[in-house]
Amino acid sequence: MQIEKMLEYNENFVANKNYEQFLTTSIPNKKMVVFTCMESRLVELLPKALNIENGDAKMVKNAGAIIRKSFDSIMKSILVAVYNLQAEEVVVIGHHDCGMSCVDTKALMEKMRSEGITDETFNALEYSGIDFHKEFHGFETVEESIAQSVEIIRGHPLLPAHVLVHGLVIDPHTGKVDIVSIDKEKAK
Q: Which pTM does this prediction carry?
């Protein structure tokens, strides 16, 4: 198991005080929230490509950098960062070649069934008002998805008017960033 190796490494990391190079406060230096995809290729590439150092930004992630509901956990995290952690800008960053762009919800459901999830479970979800296909559907283009997430954040009734919200797309191979939307209306 990888967790055992990770815990052993951590023990040495702490004993050798390797954490000291990462000490910072909980307030982001750049007063920014970055909401991006959980993509493993972006773990180091995205911060390096955008000059984000440890302590510079609050990082919030999910599959596809998708917000579909105004009061989901991502939006709550963004609002806490704005109100309690002094964030003044939100940057939504999707990426090309994203796995959420090609989710076949029927195939996903079948894979879940093959791992032991029963029809009764899917029926219970449906009975509870959860549309599996709607919940797991990805997007057609990353640009449209990022624009949708940006609009949900910008239009949120609890987001202060002065908070800037931008949308970007990064290439996970080169780190090149393309602009989807820059919040120029409120830019200083």
A: 0.90
Examine the pLDDT at 187 and tell me if it is beyond 60.
no
Query: What are the C-alpha distances in Å from 151 to residues 77, 83, 87, 110, 166?
Result: 16, 19, 18, 33, 9
Name the binding residues for Zn(2+).
37, 95, 98
- Comparing CA positions, the residue from 54, 56, 48, 50 lying closest to residue 32 is 56
Q: pLDDT value at position 3? A: 96
- Check whether 18 has a pLDDT greater than 90: yes
Q: How confident is the model at residue 177 (pLDDT cuts 50, 70, 90)?
A: very high
Distance CA 68, CA 154 (A): 13
- List, as residue ranges, the binding site: 37, 95, 98
Of 142, 172, 15, 122, the closest CA to residue 66 belongs to: 142
Domains and CATH numbers, the chain: 30-98+141-188 (3.40.1050.10), 104-137 (no CATH)
